[in-house]
Design brief:
This protein has 494 residues and is of the alpha/beta class. It is built from 17 helices and 17 strands. Helices cover 49% and strands 19% of the residues. It has an 8-stranded mixed beta barrel with strand order 8-9-11-12-13-14-15-16. Bound molecules: ligand C2E and magnesium ion (MG) (2 copies).
Length: 494
């Protein structure tokens, strides 16, 4: 054999043997890759892609088998439905990266907080479910729910931001044999709804009556959305009287929402729900426009008071909204009073103070409503120069009760207001005796059913306004009947 032929044969043999070795290697490599991809697909089918926690279909399967094992084990299980409070705000302010980071960190903390038998699942968004297996009863579920809440309640650092998370938790216990995974999840979800409605950052256990409450809440939410869409709210107006001159000073605008059956739903029922639905900005802007428009038709010495919800200060544009309402209606700023409550000042943030100052600079009067109720702090009075303080109606309700100091406190607030150059209105005056007390105490203004209930704008005719000028009762209770005669048109709210 020539050397060239020998070389060619040798190369050929080498290639052949290399091929013989590499074919199985490639096949092995391919198989591993396929298996890996297969495992990944199966993992993703059962787990949430972001957090790696169990997903909904897998949760249902695991719950099913846990429920089936209950009679054998002689124990119970609890489903904890968890919702991260104000998660949307984190997502909105820090972007999806921030939101995802928070969800992953919560998933990690929940995993660390449970036992090996328990299941931690994410159902999407900021909703997590923990199935607590092998428990003896409710007490164990209660302490475990608190343990989960404590695990979530921590500060997370994302870039230069610190996020403090809290959670609302709804718990359902598997009791009867007919328990189904879907039924348990629904009950826990209802309990979660109740926890959120109770102000969030709390735990609620499922109760059978929650089903009916939820239906009522869903119906109320639907009615609010519809009323916002079709401008179906109404404003009623309640008179305020100047004590010294015994004449009408103005009206407070109070919102009502017509129900399907023709009755009116009071604000304390639907305003908190509208706040939850983030519809209060729209409703509040409508109230301002409508109240200013109506007040512009009254005699020029009459004022109109509008209540503001703390949620209306979040966007930071309340000054613009008020300015637009005044301009559109052609109402002088000094005729508008804005009533805020102490809860707005609890946060004491500079942005709220700045907005209040802007409003005051515009010439609008700022009123501290419901003074003396809730978390009263006198410090609010020197932190902001209110134009007026409205003493909460609880004081009038207790005036003739067992606490004889109530009158003294009311007189002291009136004196304090005078020193601070703030007018003082007393709310909830229902009797001639209360009216007489306030006249003697030299309060600035009074408001209450004794002088007139809230009524629709269409009923505030010119003749009624003229009557109001004579309406303040004298100090002695006896002629009070005569006074009421002037107000007979206003005595029943429709
Ligand atoms: P508020 O601002 O303190 O209004 C006074 C409430 O006391 C009114 O209830 C009024 O009808 C009631 N009231 C007046 N005089 C008497 C009385 O002599 N006896 C008794 N028992 N009650 C009296 P209403 O209209 O149900 O409003 C409740 C609360 O809802 C208001 O309390 C205010 O905080 C809120 N609200 C009303 N309208 C609005 C609104 O347009 N926007 C916002 N954000 N809140 C509103
Ligand atoms: Mg008010
Ligand atoms: Mg009030």
């Amino acid at each position: 054999m020539k050397p060239n032929t020998f070389l060619t044969a040798a190369v050929f043999l080498c290639l052949l043997s290399g091929l013989a070795f590499s074919i199985p290697a490639i096949a092995w490599y391919r198989e591993t890759k396929v298996k890996h991809a297969d495992r990944r697909i199966r993992f993703l089918a059962h787990h949430d892609a972001l957090t790696g926690l169990t997903n909904r279909p897998q949760l249902i399967e695991k719950l099913e088998s846990a429920i089936a094992r209950l009679p054998m084990r002689g124990s119970s299980l609890a489903v904890h439905f968890i919702d991260i409070d104000r998660f949307k705000e984190v997502n909105d302010s820090l972007g999806h990266d921030g939101g995802d980071f928070l969800l992953k960190s919560i998933a990690k903390r929940l995993r660390a907080a449970v036992r090996i038998d328990d299941v931690v699942a994410r159902l999407g968004g900021d909703e997590f479910v923990v199935v607590q297996c092998g428990i003896a009863g409710k007490a164990q579920a209660e302490s475990f729910a608190s343990h989960l809440a404590a695990a979530i309640n921590a500060t997370v650092k994302f870039k230069q931001h610190e996020i403090l998370t809290t959670a609302s938790i709804g718990v359902a216990l598997a009791t009867g044999e007919d328990t189904s995974p879907e039924g348990l999840l629904k009950s826990a979800d209802l309990a979660l709804y109740a926890a959120k409605a109770a102000g969030r950052n709390c735990i609620r256990f499922f109760l059978p009556e929650m089903d009916t409450e939820l239906q009522a809440r869903i119906e109320l939410e639907r009615a609010i959305r519809e009323a916002v869409l079709n401008d179906r709210f109404e404003l009623h107006y309640q008179p305020l009287f100047e004590v010294s001159r015994r004449r009408l000073a103005g009206f407070e605008a109070l919102i009502r929402m017509p129900a399907a059956d023709g009755t009116l739903i009071p604000p304390l029922t639907f305003i908190p729900v509208a706040e939850d639905l983030r519809l209060i900005d729209k409703i509040g802007a409508w109230v301002l426009r409508e109240a200013c428009r109506t007040a512009a038709t009254w005699p020029a010495h009459l004022t109109v008071a509008v209540n503001l919800s703390p949620a209306q200060f979040v966007a930071g544009n309340i000054g613009d909204i008020v300015a637009t309402a005044l301009t559109e209606a052609g109402l002088a700023a000094h005729r508008l009073e804005l009533e805020i409550t102490e809860s707005l000042l609890l946060g004491n943030t500079e942005t709220i103070m700045a907005q209040l100052r802007t409003l005051k600079t515009m010439g609008v009067a700022i009123v501290m409503d419901d003074f003396g109720a809730g978390y009263s702090s006198l410090s609010y009075l020197w932190r902001f120069p209110f134009d007026k303080i409205k003493i909460d109606r609880a004081f009038m309700q207790s005036l003739n009760g067992p606490h004889c100091q109530v009158g003294t406190v009311v007189k002291a607030i009136i004196a304090l207001g005078r020193e601070l150059h703030m007018r003082v209105t007393v709310e909830g005056v229902e009797t001639a005796n209360q009216a007489a007390f306030l006249e003697a105490a030299e309060g600035d203004q009074v408001q209450g059913f004794f002088f007139g209930r809230p009524i629709p704008a269409s009923e505030l005719g010119a003749s009624i306004l003229a009557d109001f000028e004579k309406a303040m009762p004298p100090a002695s209770p006896a002629p009070a009947q005569a006074t009421k005669l002037h107000l007979v048109n206003l005595s029943a709210e429709r």
